[in-house]
Amino acid sequence: MKNIIIIPIGEVEQSIIDFLTETIPSVIEGIKCSSGEKIDLPFHLLNLSRNQFMAETILVQLILLKDKKNYDVVLGVIDYDIYAPGLNFVFGQVIDSVGIISLTRLKPQYYSKPENNELYKKRILTEAVHELGHIFGLDHCNDPNCVMYFSNSIRDTDKKGYNFCDKCKRKLTDNLKII
Known about the structure:
Largest sheet: 5 strands, mixed
Strand content: 15-25%
Number of strands: 8
Radius of gyration: 15 Å
Structural class: alpha/beta
Number of helices: 5
Shape: globular
Order of helices and strands: EHEEEHEEEEHHH
């Protein structure tokens, strides 16, 4: 059984980490989750002109942590905006068995909407499951209701939700048996 370690990066509410460790195993069968020790925000890696972190630079730090601690899978959670080369932002990104999600653009307040904790948690779970799907060998899906559908905007994230389509669920189940 694969163990996913959820790592807060910088100031992340413990309730969010607890929510993910408790909820992800009910969405992805055959895995377990636990929380890891918080790591500091690597401000020396901040792109000052964008006021964002390039996701890959933080993923490299998480890979080093994963190797040092001999973790199976690491998912970092950061409350700071992130991007990838060629993109204005990303909700998350993966390298091998290490992923990261950003909470910043998942907050309704980011879009000048009222706070909505239920929607916020659904978005967090959706993006966490999406990135873990990549870690477990899934590509983007053409089904706009599948969690593996590419989110170009928060509307895509809200539409798809955190469940896998039947095709992706079968592939995930097969991949988890191999891993």
